[in-house]
Amino acid sequence: MRRIIEHAAPRPVTPVYTQLSEILQIQLHRALTRQTSPAAALARAQEEMQRVLDRAGLGAERPVARR
Q1: Number of domains present in the structure of the chain
Q2: Could you report the per-residue pLDDT of 7-64, keeping only the tens digit for each?
């Protein structure tokens, strides 16, 4: 237990944590209950979370997608 605590890292601090957490919870639920595929759920979560970050002025430049 001590080793785990010594190497633990806090979650990133953000003023929109509640909104980001809600988006992720909803999309993970949809994937786990097979309402959508995991890949689609995570892609949707990423899009929605990016919109929240952009609206809050916290959006970082998006990396270029690799092919």
Answers
A1: 1
A2: 998 877 899 999 999 999 999 999 999 999 999 999 999 999 999 999 999 987 655 4
**pTM (whole model) above 0.90:** no
Q: 40-62 burial, b for 16+ CB within 10 Å, e for fewer? A: ebeebbeebbeebbeeeeeeeee
Tell me, yes or no, whether 61 lies in a domain: no
Domain of 42 in residue numbering reads as 2-55
pLDDT, residue 9, reads: 87
Token pair for 55: 């609206």
Domain assignment present for 63: no
User: Has residue 40 been placed in a domain?
Assistant: yes
